[in-house]
Amino acid sequence: MSITDYIKEDLLARICSGEESGESLTLQKLSGQYGVSITPVRLAVSALIDEGYLHKEKNRRLQINKERIKTAGPLSPRPEPPRDYYELLKTELISLSLQGEEVFIREEATAEKFEISRSNVRHIFSRLVGVGLLEHYPRQGWKVRPFRQSDLDAFIEVRVMMELKALELARTKLDPVRLKEYYDNNRYPSETEQQAHIDDRLHAYLIEMAGNPYIYDFFERHGRYFEILFTWEGRDSNASCQTVEHHRAILSAMLQEDWNKAADALKLHIENNHPLLKNLSRPSSDQSITIFSHS
To answer: 85-147+284-294 — its CATH code?
Structure first.
């Protein structure tokens, strides 16, 4: 199911069930609700207009055709959202990257496995190049970036220096209300939860408020790949609890304006918050994966 078909069917189901009263029937609002650009929303709305479920008034506002809705027949269940192939491929590539192997990916086999077009595969691969998971070699193909412990160690070494400098530059410009929000959003799991709730926006906030373009450039160029790995690591229950503990220690010191303590907590967090990646044992290659070929 395409994203346009999903929006059309989901919107119709919401209208028929009474969940959609018509107040939010603008392209902008629907685009925000579904988290997509206006184009698939416009196509979905046009299809519902053609089928008579919606109509446009003279002022161009969309209205629900209640008479047509009455004849729509039994309510259909809400459709399942379409698969996010970017996330699916990203997850698979993270696993391959962590194996530390030099692996090339074939467009044709990937398209066949996931039942999507080669143009879609190429678009997704280009996005994954942008976040550092893939490298493109003309006339050779797409290579997974292999994880190297030495790369992580080198990145962390420079990251410590950069973020401590960002803290030094930003500390007089930080908003206590925002810091308190970050503190409150870092929560240990409740009795019904398995994972802690991590809010890691503090790091980007420090870099933004530091106002140093070279610090920003370092993280834009070199941080995206590691951010993906850190997010993967944060799915582990113990790792997520440790992250919350570290974040709250940093933010508590910042709220008290104890900048030496905040710097020490930030340094400790960056250097010691990767229990999985620091102790990674290489999983064996999955021979059932057919979209990859070793270089």
So the answer is: 1.10.10.10
Listed in order, the ranges of the chain carrying CATH 1.20.120.530 are: 149-278
Task: Report the mean per-residue pLDDT for the chain.
Answer: 85
Task: For residue 180, give Cα distances in angstroms to 171, 207, 236, 246.
Answer: 14, 18, 25, 15
Reduced DSSP (H G I as helix, E B as strand, rest coil) percent helix, strand, coil of the chain, to 5: 60, 5, 30
DSSP string, 231-284: HHHTTSHHHHHHHHHHHHHHHHHHHTT-HHHHHHHHHHHHHH--HHHHTPPPPP
Q: What is the pLDDT of residue 22?
A: 67
Q: List every span in the chain annotated with CATH 1.10.10.10.
A: 3-70, 85-147+284-294
The CATH architecture one would assign to domain 149-278 is Up-down Bundle (1.20)
Termini Cα distance of the chain: 35
Residues in the chain: 295
Q: Which two tokens stand for residue 212?
A: 């140093």
Nearest to 68 by CA among 54, 88, 85: 54
CATH code for the part of the protein at 3-70: 1.10.10.10
- Which portions of the chain are predicted below pLDDT 50? 283-290, 294-295
Answer for the pair 105, 142: CB distance below 8 angstroms, yes or no. Answer: yes
Amino acid letter for position 268: L
